[in-house]
Specification:
Layout (H helix, E strand, L loop, with lengths): L2 H20 L13 H9 L8 H23 L7 H23 L11 H24 L1
Length: about 140
């Protein structure tokens, strides 16, 4: 395991931790956000959400780590001066993948249409923030 692997993975993990905190922001305005750990547990793994929320969180953080490693592999050759744009682009790509591949696969429809507008918007915002935090930590390391 090289230093770059650890740096990239930890950058993604930090981004994922911040992202988890953002899942609760829509509730401040009595809006429904998108709790991806609940989706992972109930729709992907088939467990009851209340019993296994820690499992969903662990899976989400692991995915954040892996996506950080992928970010490093993709964006390492790009100029460091474009790191913020790289992070935003990566976050947008991840969100689009979630909305076009994962959400339909778990029965929520394309772009999570069954979840509602605020869930889609909070998911977009949290993925953009994930990309920003990931790229910032990656840049500073």
């Amino acid at each position: 395991m090289g230093v770059a692997f650890v740096r990239d993975g930890l950058s993604g993990l930090v981004g994922a931790v911040v992202m988890v905190g953002l899942w609760h922001v829509p509730r401040l305005w009595n809006e429904e956000g998108l709790d991806l750990s609940r989706v992972i547990v109930t729709k992907v793994l088939g467990f009851h959400a209340n019993s296994y929320s820690q499992l969903g969180l662990a899976v989400h953080l692991l995915v954040g780590f892996v996506l950080g490693v992928i970010y490093g592999a993709i964006f390492h050759p790009f100029p460091r001066s474009a790191e913020v744009l790289n992070g935003l682009l990566y976050g947008l790509i991840l969100w689009l993948g979630l909305m076009v591949v994962v959400m339909p696969a778990v029965g929520e429809g394309y772009f999570g249409v069954k979840l509602g507008r605020s869930a889609r918007l909070s998911s977009l915002a949290s993925h953009l923030v994930y990309g920003l935090i990931l790229s910032a930590v990656y840049f500073l390391w």
